[in-house]
What we know:
The complex is a heterodimer of chains A (about 210) and B (about 650). In chain A, about 40% of the residues lie in helices and about 20% in strands.
Amino acid sequence: MSAEDLKKEPLNVIIAGVGGQGNVLMSFLIGNALVRRGYVVTVFDNYGASQRLGAVASHIKISKEGLQNSPLLHEGDADVIVGIEPIELLRNLSQFGNPEVIAVANLRPVYPIGVISGEVEYPELDEASAAIRRLSAQAWIINATDEALALGNPIYTNVILMGALIGSGVLPLDVMAMEEVLKEQLPKAFEINKVALHRGVDLVKAG
Amino acid sequence: MAHIEIDAPGTTQLLLGNEAIARGALEAGIGFATAYPGTPSSEIMGTLAPIAKKMGIYAEWSINEMVAFEAASAASLSNIRALSSMKANGVNVIADFLVNLQMTGIRKGLVLVVCDDPGGMTSSNEQDTRPIAKWLNIPMLEPSTAQECKDMTKRAFELSEELGMVCMVRSVTYLSHTRGNVRFGRLPENKKVAHFDDFYNIDDPRQSRYTCGMQFHPYKQSEELLKRFAKAPEKCENSPFNSYRGPEIPELLIISSGICWTYAIEAVSILGLQDRVGILKLGTTWPLPEGLVARYLNKSDKVLCIEEIEPFVERSVMELAASLPPDQPRPTFYGKRSGHVRAWGEQNLNLAIQSIASVMDIPYTSRQSQDLEYRRAAQAVAQTLPARPLTFCPGCPHRASFWAIKIALQLDGRNGFVTGDIGCTAMGMISPGSFQVRTYYAMGGGVGVAGGFGHLGQFGFQQPVIAVCGDSTFFHASIPGLINGVWNQSNFTLAILDNSATAMTGFQPHPGTGITATGDPGKKVSIEALCRSLGIHVEICDPFDLNTTIATLLTMMRDEGPAQVVILRRECELVRERKEKRNPFRVYVNPERCIGESCGCNRLCTRVFSCPGLVWDRDAGKAVIDEAVCVGCGLCADVCPRGAIVKEAL
Ligand code: SF4
Ligand code: SF4
């Protein structure tokens, strides 16, 4: 399939979260869907040394053609940032955001060790929401973890968010493209993930 | 995830640089692959091992890089193409063997893939492998994209055979771990027969050519090596991996290689300098394609080298410039030497922009400085965000081990300390490991250093020393240090934190697990039997049994005798969870018993012990379990002095 023109070249996406939340799977699925549609994709999952609970940011650059891009986004150059965790979203917005950036947020905190021990405070969730709106041109703030729990398991959180991202219309991908790649990559859990994907799309369409 | 084994030439897949390297090896028709895990190289074997049998390949996770590389060379000498992959530190481990193998040369293609870690993001240092290639006359290819990772790996096998020597491919973290489009080539037909013959030396057919030194004077082998290597420059000269982009006569010539080339390309376009600045990309960085570089040096007054870690290309290019005919004009060189390129750490797009802008003497206004108001708001938000420092996972046995070590050292009271080793146990240096690790250098370094401390008694040294290593690092390099300490009667305790996995790099098996890279049963090697065979005192403790562990450590520290070993054994929580898929305990804080700040415990559980599953409820002023994070290991129940944390078996 040949790729269509993009709104911007390259189109830059960040998925921000915490180790163990499924960043890597999400960027992998989106990247694969884009390659199937003929795009040139560069994906870097920035997660440092920790297996779990460290900050993770997946940088995705999409081009219509040409060569692989450099791995990380340039500061202030994101077109859309998805946050599986609110303060990781804010961290990436403040570094890679700009007045035109679009945000897709899951409002479910994972507390860092300093917060757990009571050394530092975690921002209030209303404040976090307000800051997300302040630092984006448009923001979809959903509670994907609760939606996932309603489907029976928090692991569906990222597929719901992926649906929300597709629903936001920023990527050159439709629901069909994501379904194809889900079917290919997660054949055993396809049906439930399809439900999660559509749930995400609907949440954005509704909000 | 990715399917690198499919025979579908012309199709495109999204592959990690490391997966692309593995695919390149398949397209080259390898029959043998070995590796020791090390970030950022591990996915190469991680990708090859599961498909090895299907593809008719022998794949091995070895106990260290040296035996990995030695085994791969045996395949090469027996007419089978072989790949060995490792992180930069691994090249230090194989150096002795490599120096000698390079003297005799090889038979069938032998490729050494090394993944450097500029910035040392997941390494103890940021060493550069390229100077080693130069030192040993090893041809070096440096890919810039995932596609090139595949293509260059394949080419490296041909080059290795054309020159009769080991060939190196150098990747870096930001290439190995970046996914990019890779167009597949053909997979060769699978017919390989191994036989160790054709080893006769031309001068004396009774003597094998695969032996170093002896009657074969080393200087003669050096001469032979240089003859073989003399054919390398012309191969690099015409390599399709070297290319130029830019105007016929550039004001500035950038010379770049590897991932830095992508930064250079993007920086030039962001600065709008495509008509004034040219970029010479070098895919073959050793030996330098001298003719090609000389032609471009002749076209520009200014040359800027952008590369990571050592100014390797920069120095080689300057060396070349010094040898050019005297009538050829000399350009001015910019780079790490002149201070225009940062001399340490990894490069990135921003740094490349700054380097080029400063050499071209043009202003650069970043996107940020254009949106001032937004930037101010962003900074204000950024300041309110708590950081997310490294920590052990919830339920991690290392948290328990370091806790026990800390308490034992405190109780002992003689200023004892820990000498550390590479891996997850390295986190013993920082807060999650209670800051117990005082020296940290290399694989096996903990026990070796402890052996020295343990002999300082005659100079009045009275501090007890606990060397710590993981199970994987025990097999890798700690055994000689232990034997040396036992033989020479050094006084120290070796604590082997056995979590039954090479956890830091992604749970590769090792001899203690009894499973091989391909998932087949191997012979399980018992750490305790091995240690006991030295005739020393060996104890095994479950670190979650804190009291016994602390008491054992104390007794060992107080013993004046020679080295002793305690194995702190508990499976890595992530491995346990994958297998059992349920928590061992239901754990909760009894709010009646937890009296928080007023207790005098100083919030031992959250402030000091700090498992991410146990949180401080500010409003209630008490500890509380976060059920989404807690894995129910039950350890914190033993830490609370008031017994406020309850564990119930499930
Ligand atoms: S749970 Fe125990 S250690 Fe933690 S604050 Fe309460 S009383 Fe102190
Ligand atoms: S039981 Fe305690 S120590 Fe274990 S994971 Fe849960 S909170 Fe952490």
